[in-house]
Design brief:
Length: about 80
C-alpha cells in the first residue's frame, strides 16, 4: 500500500492558507514557550488538524479551530523519527 504522506510536507509553505488568525496567534505564543509546529493534516473535504510538539517531553497538543491549545486530545501521533 502506498503512503500518501510522502506526497505532502508535514508543514506547508504557506500555513496562512490552512490556518485562521486564532490558530496562528496560538502557535506564535506557544513557540515562545518552546513548542514547535509539528504538522498540519490536510485531508480532502475536511477541516485541517494542527499539531504542536514539545521536544523535551514529547508531548503533543492540538490547536483547535478557535485557537484553543488542547493537550488533552485523543489524536494518535506517532513518535517523530530522526532524519
Amino acid at each position: 500500500m502506498d503512503d500518501k504522506r510522502d506526497k505532502q510536507p508535514p508543514i506547508p509553505d504557506n500555513i496562512k492558507q490552512y490556518l485562521n488568525e486564532a490558530q496562528l496567534m496560538t502557535i506564535g505564543q506557544m513557540e515562545s514557550f518552546g513548542w514547535e509546529l509539528f504538522f498540519i493534516r490536510r485531508p480532502l473535504f475536511q477541516e485541517t488538524l494542527t499539531i504542536m510538539y514539545f521536544p523535551s517531553s514529547g508531548e503533543t497538543a492540538v490547536i483547535e479551530q478557535d485557537g484553543t491549545f488542547n493537550k488533552a486530545h485523543d489524536v494518535y501521533v506517532r513518535p517523530a523519527v530522526a532524519a
